[in-house]
Amino acid sequence: MDKCHFVAQVNDYLDNQLAALAKARFEEHLKICPVCSGELERLSKLREQLKTWRIPEAGEGFESSVRNKIVAWELERGDEKMKIKPLVILVPAGVLVGVIIFLLVGQMYLKGGVLGKLRATEPIQLAKNVPAVQAPVKAVKSPLTTFEFAERVAVIGYSAGPVYKGYDSFSFAKMAGLSLGVQYPPQSEFFEEEYSRLYDNDFLLAKDNPLSTFSIDVDTASYSNVRRFLHNNQLPPRDAVRIEEMINYFTYDYPQPTGSDPFSINTEVAACPWNTAHKLVLIGLQGRKMEAQNLPPSNLVFLIDVSGSMQDYNKLPLLKPAFRLLVKQLRPQDKVSIVVYAESSGVVLDSVSGAEKDKIMQAIDGLTAGGSTAGAEGIDRAYEIAKKNFVKDGNNRVILATDGDFNVGITSESELLRLIEERRESGIFLTVLGFGMGNYKDAKMEKLADKGNGSIAYLDNLLEAKKVFATQLTGTLFTIAKDVKIQVEFNPAKVKAYRLIGYENRKLENKDFSDDKKDAGELGAGHTVTTLYEVVPSDSKEEFAKTDDLKYQQVTVTPSDELLTVKLRYKDPTADASKLLTRIINAKEETVQPSENFRFASGVAEFGLLLRNSQYKANASYQSVLERVKAAKGVDSDGYRADLIKLVEIAQMLDAESK
Asked: Which of 447, 452, 401 is nearest to 426 (CA)?
């Protein structure tokens, strides 16, 4: 089916759930759109057929069994409010009917036992609002939950409508923990997710290209998104792997700054683990740590996407407890506003004190998803509210939570970026939080955060929300340096060629380094930023592409023991002029016993090279990564490094199976 964002409203239209204006707009659209009118006709016929089905009585104990499953799930989730609600509210009759219908229809297709096989040539419905297709059936090693069966095969292809806290019957079935063993057709790796094409940085000759300039990056979204794929037993798309974000997901044991500058600069040189003929240079920044109680007052605007695409269990239902974690950290001097957007935007709260936690929590709990996505209108409204409540010398920030699927109003990427660029001049920073899968717009959201003087994180579970909003709260909310740029000059007397690992979409023109009008990355309180260069020594026999010799000028090399010079520019959060810092690395500084920081960061980088199947992975291997990160795990009080080890082991097995 051709894509049309109005298709998502067909079910709501049939259920008479659309507002009057949205309904009128949809009916006008039906007159000109064969896709939506055809889908409306198909679902209408299907509903009529469902009405004629005879549904036998559920077996004894069925209803109580389903209720018990839901209660067990809620207890596991730790939702105190759910524990005191009557069970009859949790399981409406419509839900039970939906589950019963699903089980009955499932039995029709699961002939020959619980693990029966679907005929490979039968039309298979991949998801609601997607036409039946002829698809081969692929065996799986573990049984699917009812939700997964419905999502991937969708024998019924029908949703019972909004039930139980906004879930449809399929999502409800997943929460209830019902399980069927089936075989299902292959699932597209990408769905409608969008990632920017990344081309690995090439080796550059130091003689021809002595300068390397880029903006720092404290984003972490790529790592948690990669984790989501691996936990779903899938290798991530290559372009979802941004190596610098994987490295910078972790903190490193760099010393705190001792001078007036807000961060320390740390360097190290050692042999490159995946190509021992090369050197690896580490440049690490450590932002000054601040206690949360010492932060300036915050003016926070929660900009929350409540469109229909956010109703999935790992979107708005995950977003709510995530924001509750942040609310618990607020102080009386902090102010919170909540702006929501779907078909249009609206203000739920306007500048409420952090002391009024119950009021803020109730507003968050009351959010429901439905409708199209007018993202640009919501962004405009959020910045207006932030500007109206601006706190001088405070932390003024919009926190955008969405899957990035904007489809109403300004939807083009260039217009959205221009809108964000205009708003950032007001001194209001932007934090972007990504949610969900299937239609996650990673490329768009990363660029929005970049242009909005902010960062992006991807929340795949509640523990990640805890990391962003509790463990690393000061770094998330408070910027200590903005427009941070790094320029490295390599000495051709010691370096034949080099390449920057990662930061492919953060590179700058060399002239941009001294241009204070050129935007760059922001550094939060306590943040660490780690950069790696792979360096080829000047006496190497390796050949690299080079330009022809110049006719009118000659390049001379000054003899020196210096390997390279690191130059760094940054601005104070409220300043317009940058400050310059310089650090020289001598070739004799190379160590044969690299630090724990070096070993772990290089292990993460090597893991990224393998996931990207990079042409520069050389002798990289999962075993090498495992040995190094295990030995360099350190204290790891939060368990983030232990989690990486598990991900490497999963990727190793998936990679082996794919060959």
From this structure: 452
Among 2, 8, 38, 1, residue whose Cα is nearest residue 405: 8
371 burial via Cβ count (<10 Å: 0-12, 13-18, 19+): buried
Quick one: tokens of 147?
A: 């939700």
Task: Count CA atoms closer than 13 A to 190's CA, side-chain side.
Answer: 11
Q: How many CB atoms lie within 10 A of CB 635?
A: 8
Using the structure block, give the residue that is written with the tokens 């941009």: 512
Do 486 and 433 share a structural domain? no
CB 633 within 8 A of CB 625: no
142-172 b/e (C-beta count within 10 Å ≥ 16 → b): eebbbbbbbbbbbbbbbbbebbbbbbbbbbb
Residue pLDDT, tens place only, 395-450: 999 999 998 877 655 556 777 788 888 888 888 999 999 999 888 889 888 988 88
Locate 51 and state its tokens: 């009405």
Q: Is residue 589 part of a domain?
A: yes
Tokens representing residue 516 in the block: 């204070």
525-to-205, 215, 359 alpha-carbon distances in Å: 36, 17, 29
The pLDDT score that the predictor gives to residue 128 is 36
Q: Which residues contact 369 (CB under 8 A, 6 or more apart)?
A: 166, 306, 307, 308, 309, 310, 311, 315, 316, 342
Look at residue 364 and give its three-state secondary structure.
helix
Residues with Cβ within 8 Å of residue 37, at least 6 apart in sequence? 30
Average pLDDT over residues 173-194: 43
| Mean pLDDT (whole number) for 21-47 | 80
**Number of other CB atoms surrounding residue 493 within 10 Å:** 16
Helix (H) or strand (E) holding 583: strand 579-586
Q: Find residue 488's DSSP bridge partners.
A: 212, 566
The verdict on residue 547 lying in a domain is no
In a domain? residue 452: yes
What's the total number of domains in the chain?
4
Domain around 174: 71-180
443 and 406 in a common domain: yes
Q: How far is CA 201 from the centre of its chain?
A: 23
In this prediction the pTM is 0.72
Q: What is the pLDDT of residues 448-500, one digit of tens each?
A: 888 888 899 999 999 999 999 999 989 988 999 999 999 999 999 999 999 99
Count other C-beta atoms under 10 Å from residue 189's C-beta.
Answer: 12
Mean pLDDT of 355-366: 96
Q: Is there a contact between 639 and 296 (Cβ–Cβ < 8 Å)?
A: no
**Distance between start and end Cα atoms, the chain:** 33
Indicate the length of the chain as a whole number: 659
Task: Mark residue 618 as left, alpha or beta (left: phi above 0; alpha: psi -120 to 50; beta: remaining).
Answer: left
Per the DSSP assignment, residues forming a β-bridge with 269 are 281
Are 357 and 330 in contact by the 8 Å Cβ rule? The answer is yes
> Which H or E run includes 88?
helix 87-90
Angstrom distance (rounded) from CA 517 to CA 538: 36
Please, which residues have CB within 8 angstroms of residue 653's CB and are 6 or more apart in sequence? none
Contact (Cβ atoms closer than 8 angstroms) between residue 158 and residue 51? no
